[in-house]
Give the backbone structure.
Amino acid sequence: MNFKTKCIVKYFYVMFLLFLILFDLALPPFGVFGSAWLALLLLFPKFFLLRDKFFIFKKYKALIILYFFGFFYVVLIITVNGAIDVSYVLSFLKSSVVMIASLFFLSVYRDKNIGKLLVVAFFINSLICLIVGTFSEKLLHYILYFKHSGDEMVDYIVYRVSSLSGSGYFGMSAPYSLCVAFIGYYLAVSKENIIFFLFVFVSVSLAAILSGRTGFIGIFLALVFILYYKPFMIIPVHFVLVGIGFFLLNSGFVDSYRDWLFEFFIDSSGNLSSDRTPFSFLSQMSFVPSVSTFIFGDGQYVAPDGHYYGKTDLGYMRFLLFGGIPFSVISISLVIVLSIVARSYSYFFVIGVTCLILHLKGVVFFNNAAVTSFMILVSYNFKLISMRGVNE
């Protein structure tokens, strides 16, 4: 095997590992635990042979401590409240495996291009989403094999579950949105081929908004970052977005989804809507809990009937109801800790702020494997940039 072939094989293997860590595939026989555990097993032999195997773990010591306190509080609040449902213990354990697998990956592959590798991984999955969603009758059943809920997830908008991941809907729209925001930043600060990354931006943006309307948040934030870091870039990106909008509004490709896509902007009569905005949705799903719940939480994440506890799916509300102020602070601290580890203001404003906004709509911290692993892995990219003193 020549050098070029070895490089290609290594690249595809790295992509395979990233898919296992990022996209939480329901792999048998331990489907409930996702797929990061397999990446961990595959990475362990090479990790074991490293001379300075704990170098990355030392750098991310604060993150590990945060996870320890988070798990301790999860067990404590469930025990104190005598809650029957212990599903969140398993969720946090799975998140811990994702975190450890991410650190193993960084230990083995200390690649300065980790940010670009993450973008490529999401780009590949966005193409899978668009292709499978378009030819769903022939391809969708292969994708559903890797979903945690299988056929139960399918509705009339098949694109929402067409990505190669263990989840769909907001579970994929949120990480796609985070990636879109990062691509906006990358477009502004990178000196690489802009045409290629504009194409990637279009593909991932389409997958984001077809997976969930949360995708519009990622696109908006990408424009903000581009405008801040490289204002003249806003012109070509603006034309690209106008093209996407024209396509979505006039193409029969997504004709049956148009009302759903633009529900927050256009009413059933085709007029601009003022009473169905995202802000009205947030106000409907928000309420003030009791003092004890606000301070300590109820230790319940899922209601006895299987629905969200408190009948709200807002991330901040769900964590407040579950673990009160302490757990809410722990979850938000994930942004602060990783920003400190990255030693980067840009990380906080690009990745951190995006995640804090996405958490308004649904849970992203800890629970969403793709968002959590993306936050951890891309922090290394920002850390290298800050060490070189570039763009900070």
Notes: The mean pLDDT is 82.
